[in-house]
Specification:
heterodimer; A: alpha/beta; seven-stranded parallel sheet; two-stranded parallel ribbon; 10 helices; 9 strands; B: alpha/beta; 8 helices; 44% helix
């Protein structure tokens, strides 16, 4: 287990929801945290983080803007001296369907693909050269969705997991198919696209002790999910959700694996079973030797 | 009479390689085809195919990443060929995008890859869907890569092409959601996910555009992949990523259960 005290992290989209929980958990673990968000609540977050005795800086920034990304990454490095951890969390949701008109489609593309996919690309591409120059390894965690890592990826993923809800009496009919339904084509595309960065970066950066993993979150109590339910979820829905704090605990556990831990993995967190870090899975879309620990 | 008689198809990126093979296979099976590309050579492809197959084949020089070009292609197809039944989203951009690239290069690379592979494909599909809906059905084929299916060999999801890989992974979201949403309109949507095929894009990776002998021996041919696409269209399934791997038979596998349609 690696001690995270004194490491330096960036968390995007940290004003509310999962990103906020990630930033708070990192600070309580002794990690200095740089945060950004387009939401104004970000302004007061550094003060809150400093209450844990760490350094903290924050900016209002749009992760789809290269200039904003540069400002945050360079600002974090200048403030802390190095960047050890990047949590690519910023994301947006919006309904989009196959027969939307082109005006709406292009606006959706800029917002959803721009934030969820281009944002993670830009932050990765800004931070990776810094981590490589530091030569001390690093951690990149992208936040994705369970839409792309369902029970069927590619077969039955969960039989080895006694906690899988599908294996319980009255559980989900298994296996659950991919996707977020028929009205999230751009959201799902933007999250599937993250696999391109996950696998290429994990393979290439393993020899440099830089790990890349993704959290594929199912329904979690967060600003995004509450907005999806018009901020009036039923008690049943609310009770079924995972908690951001549990996801943050799993994030810390992943980071504590350190450079010899897993890399190139989509970690699946689905509603109905404990939101905890499970043991590593065999790679599916790349070969095991691509990401085996370099001796 | 062929199943595709009186059907109208659009093939993007049809000046060479796989796009040309798709256009040829569609024309040989009786479809009228509008084939477009940013390369002028597409005009020769169109006239050659028309002469060889007897089908109507219309060529256009157009850039799938430009909205005005996309709208021009779609309206031309509807006006000149009478509608749109089949869209083959083949046009693709490829270049090495190593993580060590400069910041300015990284930003330019995003636009170069995504404007064509993701945004262009999205615009063209959105523009075609209403035409398919008004004709009571249709087919969309998203040309992807074997990278998005479980690894059978080394070399998948290459480290120097993160943006290309990502652009193809993203298509999973389109194939999946469109197939579900458009089922009510009898519009089928599938992905073609193939490994190394003998195309100018592949040859361009090697000195003098010559495939290494060991690769030349096993590489798949565009006509094989185009034949697989025709089999797919005739089969009538939807929402599935169809794989074709070097060293394995190129044939339409049995339909997969819902939870494995996209993930393979």
């Amino acid at each position: 287990m690696v001690d995270l005290t004194g490491k330096n992290a960036i968390v995007t989209g940290a004003a509310v929801g999962l990103g906020n929980a990630y930033a708070l958990a990192l600070a309580r673990e002794g990690v200095n945290v740089a945060v950004c968000d387009i939401r104004e609540e970000i302004d007061s977050l550094p003060d809150t983080l400093r209450e844990s005795g760490v350094n903290a800086v924050g900016w209002r920034a749009d992760v789809s803007s290269p200039d904003d990304v540069r400002r945050v990454v360079d600002g974090a490095r200048d403030a802390f001296g190095s960047i050890d951890i990047l949590v690519n969390n910023a994301g947006v949701w919006g309904a989009s369907v196959a027969d939307d008109d082109l005006d709406k489609t292009l606006a959706d593309y800029e917002r959803i693909v721009g934030t969820n996919m281009k944002g993670e690309y830009l932050f990765g591409r800004a931070v990776i050269p810094i981590m490589l120059a530091q030569g001390t390894g690093g951690e990149i965690v992208n936040v994705a969705t369970d839409h792309m890592v369902t029970c069927g990826t590619p077969n039955d993923l969960c039989p080895g997991l006694p906690t899988c809800p599908s294996s319980q009496p009255g559980g989900w009919p298994r296996p659950r198919p991919t996707g977020g339904g028929d009205a999230m084509d751009l959201y799902d595309a933007s999250k599937w696209g993250l696999n391109g960065f996950l696998f290429a970066w994990a393979k290439q950066l393993r020899p440099h002790n830089i790990r890349v993993n993704a959290f594929c979150m199912g329904a979690t109590d967060s600003y995004m999910l509450r907005s999806f339910h018009n901020f009036e979820p039923s008690a049943e829905e609310e009770a079924s959700w995972m908690r951001s704090e549990d996801s943050a605990k799993a994030l810390l556990d992943l980071l504590k694996e350190g450079p010899t831990g897993r890399t190139g993995e989509n970690l699946n967190f689905c509603v109905g079973r404990p939101c905890v870090l499970e043991p590593p899975l065999e790679p599916i879309y790349i070969l095991k030797e691509d990401v085996d620990v370099v001796a | 009479m062929s199943l595709l008689d009186r059907k109208v198809a659009i093939v993007s990126g049809g000046a060479q390689g796989l796009g040309e093979a798709y256009a040829r296979a569609l024309a040989e099976n009786g479809a009228s085809v509008l084939v477009f590309d940013i390369q002028d050579a597409v005009m020769n492809v169109a006239s050659t195919l028309e002469a060889a197959t007897g089908a109507r084949v219309l060529g256009m020089v157009a850039d799938v990443s430009k909205r005005a070009d996309v709208e021009r292609v779609v309206s031309t197809c509807a006006d000149s060929l009478g509608g749109i039944d089949i869209l083959v989203n083949n046009a693709g951009a490829w270049r090495r995008t190593p993580v060590e690239s400069s910041w300015e290069q990284a930003i330019a690379d995003w636009d170069f890859i995504m404007d064509t592979n993701l945004k262009g494909l999205l615009m063209l599909s959105r523009a075609c869907v209403p035409h398919m809906q008004s004709r009571g059905g249709g087919d969309i084929v998203n040309v992807s890569t074997y990278y998005v299916l479980p690894a059978r060999s080394a070399g998948t999801n290459g480290t120097e092409t993160d943006l290309y890989n990502a652009s193809k992974w993203a298509l999973n979201g389109f194939t999946d959601a469109w197939a579900k949403y458009l089922a009510k309109d009898k519009i089928r949507v599938n992905g073609m996910c193939m490994g190394a095929t003998d195309t100018p894009m592949l040859r361009g990776l090697f000195p003098d555009h010559q495939l290494p002998p060991d690769m030349a021996e096993i590489v798949m041919q565009p006509a094989q992949i185009a034949g697989l696409m025709i089999d797919l269209l005739k089969d009538g399934r939807s929402g599935e990523n169809i794989g074709a791997w070097v060293g394995h038979p190129v044939e339409l596998e049995p339909r997969k259960p819902d939870h494995r349609k996209i993930t393979g």
